[in-house]
Write a structure and sequence with these properties.
mainly alpha; three-stranded mixed β-sheet; two-stranded antiparallel ribbon; 24 helices; 5 strands
């Protein structure tokens, strides 16, 4: 009898194991080989990009794609799809889903690499004629942010039109190629493909974007009128898109964020959380000033979690601090990852990592943090918090409009130029001019990264509310808060945004908490001293 029971149990165990085993074991071996190749490629790409960014060396990403031409193929995408369909284990199925998404998006990017290189080469070489001078195209944005005369801003903004006309010829080909490749991959449309790959119901998110624009209209208009009048000395009927860079530049606050103390403030902030940046051997911060170094802050996760790098070329000012703190949020996330699977180290969708980046960046808008780390008088602090509320409203409105536009662009809108200018004008609150339409393809985020940013902004507010509830408004001073964050960072890219929000105690990602936080900031800025 006991022998019979053992035989039955052994048979049952064998059946159970066989039902979980892949139907094509050689497929899994092949997929593991592809995973190893992809991880090596990501490291090579990151190193090349880092050296170009930090040291000004030549970058040739196309050469890496060519050297790995056998990786991003329809055959490999179908191979992973078949394994995903057959897989019974939820974790392994998710890994395969992430890997298929990566292969699919990289397959598309590989096909348009030559076109994108063409765009980059034009941007790098193009000049704009302005006031008898030839100005490098890539310097125009910085000049607009610092030009005090509106007439000069207007002329410089329109002077870029010929360059944009040339770029739009190539970017039209990029758009057409994206749409064609989505159909070649078996999807009914590009929107169908991205919605499925990134697990974001785009039609439902459209309602969220429309809600944001409607819900914030009146508050944003009041703040815009006030700040445009105060900073630019303009009425709203004279506010144009070329004025926005100077408006957002906020020069008046820069003196409270000097370059000389920037790294010390960053170190002190994370030390209070129980995180010593000086002893994090796997996280390198390059703050050296080199002539060919790109001045913008950036984070490269070269080899997660062993080699994560942050670059900054300190010049001081609020924008510099914001960029550094933002990239440090990415850096801590990837340097603290405890995941071992390739997909869970590198291939998550951007909502979660951008949430961590914004959480770090928005410490600069936390009134308790500001009192401890800046010399702002109370009057200036209130003015700054009010500006930060406006700043957030501006960006969630702008990106809501971007998302709504991209949804229609990728659906074949008949007049995308006019649609783009109209949506951005209404969201930003600026008057339209013909040159606005020229930006209709240069202002498009690849693969709906615009939705990732919006969801990250919403999720950051929810995580911030969780930290504030558990540790107080000065949660950044509590090592226990640091431990909690490290437990979240340790999950790497395993969780998508919809899974992560449940971990921190919410049912779903929603803009409600962010909108409430913005209203609180506005109320604080108007509150009279006791």
């Amino acid at each position: 009898m006991e022998a019979l029971k053992f035989s039955i149990l052994l048979c049952s165990a064998s059946l159970l194991l066989s039902s979980c085993a892949p139907e094509h074991p050689k497929d899994i071996e092949r997929i593991d080989s592809l995973r190893a190749q992809a991880e090596a490629l990501i490291k090579e790409q990151s190193l090349m990009a880092w050296n170009s960014w930090a040291f000004g060396t030549e970058s040739n990403q196309d050469s890496l794609y060519k050297a790995n031409a056998n990786l991003f193929t329809l055959e490999n995408i179908k191979l992973v799809q078949r394994a995903e369909d057959e897989e019974q284990n939820d974790v392994q199925k998710k890994r395969l889903r992430y890997f298929r998404r990566y292969l699919t998006i990289e397959y598309i990017d590989k096909e348009i690499t030559v076109l994108k290189d063409g765009v980059s080469n034009i941007e790098a070489a193009a000049t704009v004629r302005f006031e008898g001078r030839q100005i490098p195209y890539r310097q125009v944005a910085g000049l607009l942010a610092n030009e005090k005369k509106q007439s000069h801003r207007a002329a410089l903004y329109s002077a870029v039109d010929p360059v944009l006309d040339t770029l739009n010829i190539i970017l039209t080909q990029v758009e057409q190629t994206n749409l064609r490749l989505a159909r070649d991959l078996g999807y009914t449309s590009y929107n169908h493909m991205i919605g499925e790959l990134k697990e974001i119901p785009l039609d439902e998110f459209k309602k969220v974007a429309e809600h944001i624009l409607a819900e914030t209209e009146s508050t944003y208009t009041v703040l815009l009128d006030e700040i445009v009048g105060k900073q630019l000395r303009l009425n709203l009927d004279k506010f144009y898109r070329y004025d926005r860079a100077l408006l957002l530049r906020s020069h008046q606050f820069d003196k409270y964020f000097p370059s000389s103390t920037m790294m010390d403030v960053l170190n002190a902030t994370y030390t209070q959380l129980g995180i010593n940046l000086n002893t994090q051997k796997n996280l390198k911060i390059d703050a050296e000033v080199r002539e060919k170094k790109n001045p913008r802050a950036v984070c490269y996760a070269v080899e997660v979690p062993n080699d994560v790098r942050v670059s900054i070329k300190p010049i001081g000012g609020l924008g510099d601090y914001s960029a550094l703190f933002h990239e440090m949020g990415h850096g801590q996330h990837y340097a603290s990852t405890k995941e071992h699977a390739f997909e869970f180290k590198y291939l998550g969708e951007p909502t979660v990592t951008e949430c961590f980046a914004f959480l770090s960046e928005y410490l600069l808008a936390n009134q308790a943090w500001l009192r401890l780390n800046t010399s702002m008088p109370t009057r200036v602090l209130k003015e700054f918090i009010r500006f930060q509320a406006f700043h957030r409203l501006y960006f969630i409105r702008r990106y809501s409009a971007k998302f709504l536009y991209e949804l229609q662009l990728h659906s074949g809108a008949s007049n995308p130029q006019a649609l783009y200018a109209e949506l951005q004008s209404k969201a930003i609150g600026c008057k339209k001019i013909p040159s606005d339409e020229k930006r209709y393809l240069t202002d498009v985020d690849a693969h709906y990264y615009s939705a990732g940013y919006l969801r990250a902004w919403f999720l950051e507010a929810q995580l911030n509310a969780k930290l504030t509830k558990d540790f107080g408004v000065n949660w950044f001073e509590h090592p226990q808060a640091g431990e909690y964050l490290q437990s979240l960072w340790a999950k790497g890219d395993r969780l998508n945004g919809d899974e992560f929000v449940k971990v921190i105690g919410y049912e779903r990602i929603t803009p409600d908490v962010l909108l409430a936080a913005i209203n609180t900031m506005i109320l604080f800025s108007t509150k009279r001293a006791a």
